[in-house]
Give the backbone structure.
Amino acid sequence: MLSEAKHLVGIICPNMRGFEKNEDKGALPPYIFSLKFIKSHAKEWKTMPIDKIPKNPKAVLLDMDGVVVDGMPFHLRAWKEAFSAVGIEVSDIDVYRREGMDGLETVQEISRGKGVPLTPEVERQVNESKNRILNKIFQVRFVPGSLELIRKLKARGFRLALVTGTRGEVVSRILKEGLNPPEADFDVVITAESVERKKPAPDPYLKAVELLGLRKEECLVIENAPAGIASAKGAGLRCLAITTSLPAAYLKEADAVLAGLEEVSRLFDNH
């Protein structure tokens, strides 16, 4: 089963990592997609052609989780444990579809969608529990090719923005492990504290464009989740999505969908 899972991941989601064998149990780690999930979505994990992205962008705006940092498997595990404590079972898709959203809004959407509305106090407890669990298990690891893409774009004169709903102190800690210093690579960094309304509201990307001092048509967004795509499109920006977290079927609101950052990088070979 393990070799079959590795083969499928290599075909339909080449950027997913974590199919290392658990030495104690001989099983797959609990924080990645199950083989059943991968098989059931294999046909959906197709890409969409590029036909609407800016031909000569001056800036590239990057989401963090799933585009730069491979942190979503840890978020997934933390959400599952936090919801389990209040008797709610959540699926991988429940979490991945809401990637980038405000934590409390995620609790509200998932619990109500399961037909188990929670009191405001319990909603707050679930969100805080998720954050505590995440802080204990989180490991900084970068999406394959992300650091190379960032340096390539910077070397070719593109202005770069990082647009995330993660808290600023966490962003700084994460980036310091891969970029030295992170400020040298990103012209603008938008974090949870930068705007009042988080993704899927357009505010994070509107703020990034404002600080970059460019026109919207001069900017290209790279996202990997529906909430981030909605935020970018709501801000009037062109958005390229990659299937590092979800099949292309969930990313159809983007202007184009590619398998991963290697394909994204090739788009800039002639710039």
Q: What stands out?
A: The beta strands are 59-62, 159-163, 188-190, 219-223, 238-242, 256-258. Residues 2-44 form one domain. The first strand starts at residue 59 and ends at 62.
